[in-house]
Write a structure and sequence with these properties.
Mean pLDDT: 93
Number of domains: 3
Helix content: 40-55%
Number of strands: 8
Structural class: alpha/beta
CATH topology of the largest domain: Rossmann fold
Largest sheet: 4 strands, parallel
Distance between the termini: 43 Å
Radius of gyration: 21 Å
CATH class of the largest domain: Alpha Beta
Shape: globular
Order of helices and strands: HHHHHHHHEHHEHHEHEHEHHEHHEHEH
Oligomer: single chain
Low-confidence stretches: none
Length: 377
């Protein structure tokens, strides 16, 4: 996280040129410059320069703008002054999170039950493994208990653990991993939230407590590789967990791209690929998904590298703006008029597209077909 001093230094670098405005999905959706990156920084500079005039009403307006953000990083990407705007926004959220009861509840859920939904964390594996016994009768043997070790840990994440849509994605992942004869384990109830949602709420200390637990379990398991399909988890594992540097931390597409040289069943199809913002901007994973798709016989139709509206807690703070971002994306990419499916590799992006009526799949759901591990859809 960024300190107040670092934020002040970043603010000095910003020349208010406005180059970030037209690429910002929030501005595109609202046409309100208050919600643009430059608008947010204007409020912040006003607060610093005239604290006595920054009354409760202005503070509430600022609070709204700072959480009306998908934290997609397009502003950072375009900034000619190299201002890490998203670092500023995350730091500033600390003081404003209590204005949003739903966000407060998410924070409490994680603190109480170690997952964003506030469910019994022991259910983290049970909620989806119970649906896979026909395909994986020995799956319980993969779930971590004290003293258990494994070469690879599948770090599932909160979203994929508790939401039913992702059971088929996990089923696909497990089929490929078993096909590759990987010695992998699942942490189950010993997997705590990666802390990424808390980072988005400005709650760094609370996030670090969860990460200390995850790191301890990972080291106990003597793993050499951690893989996840969630870009938010990937970012948290790489940047914020203090995991031994000898342990490789990979996105699922990187892992499978390393392991798979060719497939027996070339799919020979075209799919529109959506780059998850947190994956390609924050973790710079762009080559592996495309390389894997090419090996599978998929011709990638590139889309604008823009946000789907599903990140940064935006779906919680302003569902209407999140939906407008998605609606604009559907229109720009002709997703309603063309019959080409969208493919991605992020559970949040997948849900955002599907909830808007766009046929969307995770890359692994096609990988099992390319490996002849599952029937055609």
């Amino acid at each position: 996280m960024t300190s107040k001093t670092e934020v002040d230094e970043l603010l000095k670098k910003c020349v208010q040129c406005g180059s970030c405005i037209l690429t910002c999905p929030i501005y595109r959706a609202t046409l309100n410059e208050s919600f643009s990156p430059r608008g947010k920084l204007y409020y912040l500079k006003l607060k610093d320069a005239y604290p006595e005039k920054f009354d409760d009403e202005l503070a509430k307006e600022y609070s709204k703008t700072i959480f009306t953000c998908a934290v997609c990083g397009r502003c950072v990407e375009i900034c000619t002054s190299e201002v890490k705007l998203t670092d500023i926004f995350r730091e500033e959220r600390k003081a404003s999170v209590n204005d949003f009861p739903k966000l407060v509840q998410i924070g409490e859920n994680i603190s109480d039950e170690m997952n964003v939904y506030g469910l019994d964390n022991e259910m983290r594996a049970e909620t989806w493994t119970m649906e896979l016994y026909d395909d994986f009768p020995d799956i319980d043997d993969r779930i971590y208990s004290d003293g258990m070790t494994g070469d690879t840990i599948l770090f599932v994440g909160c979203l994929m653990s508790f939401r039913n849509r992702h059971v088929n994605v996990l089923k696909s992942i497990l089929k490929v991993m078993e096909h590759l004869d990987e010695n992998f384990i699942i942490l189950g109830g010993e997997e705590y939230c990666c802390g990424h949602p808390l980072d988005l709420l400005g709650k760094e200390e609370e996030a670090d407590k969860l990460r200390e637990h995850n790191t301890e379990v990972i080291h106990k398991a003597k793993t050499t590789t951690i893989v996840t399909d969630c870009p938010g988890c990937l970012e948290a594992l790489i940047d914020h967990h203090k995991i031994d540097p000898s342990v490789k931390i990979l996105h699922m597409t990187e892992y499978f791209d390393e392991k798979i040289e060719s497939v027996p069943n070339k799919l020979n199809i075209k799919l529109k690929y959506h780059d998850p913002c947190e994956l390609f901007r924050n973790s710079e994973v762009t080559t592996a998904p495309r390389s894997l798709l090419k090996k599978m016989g998929v011709e990638v139709i590139e889309m604008e590298p823009s946000c789907c509206g599903g990140g940064g807690m935006l779906r919680v703070t302003d569902e209407g703006i999140a939906q407008e971002i998605m609606d604009q994306r559907i229109e720009k990419e002709n997703l309603e008029k063309e019959d080409t499916c969208v493919i991605t590799c992020c559970p949040s992006c997948l849900e955002q597209y599907e909830q808007s009526g766009v046929t969307t799949w995770d890359i692994t759901e096609y990988l099992v077909k390319a490996l002849n591990l599952e029937e055609d859809k």
